[in-house]
Amino acid sequence: MREVAVIGCGMTKFGELWKKSLRDIFVEAALKAIDDAGVDHIESMYVGSMTPGLFVGQEHIGALMADYLGVAPIPAVRVESACCSGGMALRLGFFEIASGYSDLVLVGGVEKMTDGADVTYALASAADQDYEVYHGITFPGLYAMIAKAHMHHYGTTRKQLAAVSVKNHYNGSFNPNAQFPKEVTIDQVINATLVADPLTVLDSSPVSDGAACAILVSMDLAKKLNKPVIKILGSGAATDALALHTREDITTLKAVKDSAESAYKMAGIKPSDVSFAEVHDCFSIAEICIIEELGFVKKGQGGPFTEKGNTSLEGKIPVNPSGGLKSKGHPVGATGIAQVVEVVEQLKGNAGKRQVKNAKIGLAQNMGGSGASSVTHIFQI
């Protein structure tokens, strides 16, 4: 396979973007990425979006976005894998270039969640309808069960869960694109409105609008364009049972572990080689489980590891320097590419007050549902 690089990125601010449509926010992010890359055309496009049909009544968005971006008749397709739709779009663009078929591909993600749709219903479409949703469970409830099990088996504390949100809000306070760029305290997280015991609203990622895009090119083209090059070292993806009750251990996110191991193998690295990571902290317990599955800490030790500051900007392995889904926001289809934007900015040394020191290798892990799908990418400056 050919080597693939990221040479341009762009994203909108995440939040409640009342005055902009789905197509508006995607085109805004895409034009920023194209301008950043300094290219005058693209050959193909993949658009990650979880469920625009339920959120805004619009399907067929590959063609829609190509039209409004002014790049038709290039091939353009919407990619869906629940909340890791953006990451999967990146993976497809990566392999199109690595295969030699194309030299310049735009990968993006977009979601418009605040226009009046039943968000709980739309998001629950990514869970098992027959065995979970029809019996009243929601994603906060599913992750609350994971949290309760983790606390029971490993002694994870309520304070350790809250430490994830506190750390990510601190990082997000330095991110101009974050939906909630403000700090919170342990007490505020624990005493916030309860969503699903033990998780409060401050353990939970928000409902968001937003888009993010990246320009991928072959390494040969990247060198010709004389742009700063961020190489994609590895890509891995995996799936697991959709319903929690069919898994051997609900505290184990097997798809995350398998996707990471595939990415590490392709990249030829091990977890200790990673400088920092952007991970899918849809709920505080998710980040704790994910850093265990990525191999940053032993199983069951994610809580104490976080509480001791090891995942802070100055810690052993900084996690979610962008503020993560919790502070930055979570427009579900856009999240995977927004992670890439942060990784690229960090590796270029352009992250300002949230800059990770000596950032050489970055990891982005994007997850769908309650862990039924996961995609992991590894990048190097």
Return the structural class. Answer: alpha/beta
The ordered string of helix (H) and strand (E) elements is: EHEHHEHEHHHHEEEHEHEHHHHEE
Strands side by side in the biggest sheet? 3-2-4-7-1-8-11-10-9
> What number is the mean pLDDT?
97
Shape: globular
Tally of separate helices: 14
How much of the polypeptide forms β-strand, as a percent range?
Answer: 15-25%
Radius of gyration from the CA trace?
Answer: 19 Å
The low-pLDDT segments are none
CATH topology of the largest domain: Peroxisomal Thiolase, Chain A, domain 1
Q: Got a strand count? A: 11
Amount of helix: 25-40%
CATH class of the largest domain: Alpha Beta
Report on the biggest sheet. Answer: 9 strands, mixed
Specify the CATH homologous superfamily of the largest domain. Answer: Thiolase/Chalcone synthase
Report on this structure.
The protein has 381 residues and is α/β, with parallel strands linked by helices. It has 14 helices and 11 strands. The chain has helices at 22-37, 52-55, 61-69, 85-98, 119-124, 139-154, 158-172, 186-191, 219-225, 254-267, 284-293, 302-307, 324-328, 335-348, and strands spanning 4-11, 44-48, 76-79, 104-112, 194-196, 199-200, 209-218, 230-239, 276-278, 361-368, 373-380. The radius of gyration is 19 Å and the shape is globular.
